[in-house]
Specification:
The protein is α+β, with helices and mostly antiparallel strands. The chain has a four-stranded antiparallel sheet, with no helix packed on it. Strand 7 and strand 8 form a beta hairpin. The longest helix has 12 residues.
């Protein structure tokens, strides 16, 4: 991830998660999608193909955790595949990662969102960031869609 961001820059990276329907679904342990059977791993961290624990089916990764993970990677020195990456200051990492998780995907999809400005849709996520650089934890506190609080 650090190598990709170093080569492309935050402006050319789009963060996604392959979290599936079982994310936060109480009681779902087994399921069928497209005729393929799957199960939620006993850790609750990911999905796997039923009967084949070595084959992933998908993740249960929330975007707030994904953003927190990338913030942690960007705010500590890392050995990359092609180069060593120096830790970014928290503010720089937060701005870049936020863009990769919000504005960039919106622009890629042609959506009129991802930018806070008068007359634009007010789609917002308020998050709480705790911990120190390299050991940060980000959790969603509330969410607004079109200027209305929905969570």
């Amino acid at each position: 991830v650090a190598d990709t961001i170093a080569r492309k820059g935050f402006d050319r990276v789009v963060m996604v998660t392959d979290a599936m329907f079982a994310t936060d679904a109480k009681g779902i342990r087994d399921f069928v999608v497209g005729g393929r059977e799957g199960v939620v791993h006993s850790s609750g961290q990911y999905l796997q193909v039923k009967g084949d624990p070595q084959t992933l089916f998908g993740s249960l990764l929330h975007m707030d955790r994904a953003v927190g993970n990338v913030l942690n990677w960007m705010t500590q020195d890392l050995e990359g595949v092609w180069a060593r990456h120096k830790a970014l200051p928290l503010e720089e990492a937060l701005v870049g990662v936020s863009r990769a998780a919000s504005r960039n995907p919106a622009e890629l999809l042609g959506l009129d969102t991802g930018i806070l400005a008068e007359g634009r849709p007010a789609d917002l996520v308020l998050a709480r960031l705790t911990g120190a650089q390299g050991a940060l934890r980000l959790r969603t506190a509330s969410t607004w869609l079109a200027g209305r609080r929905v969570a």
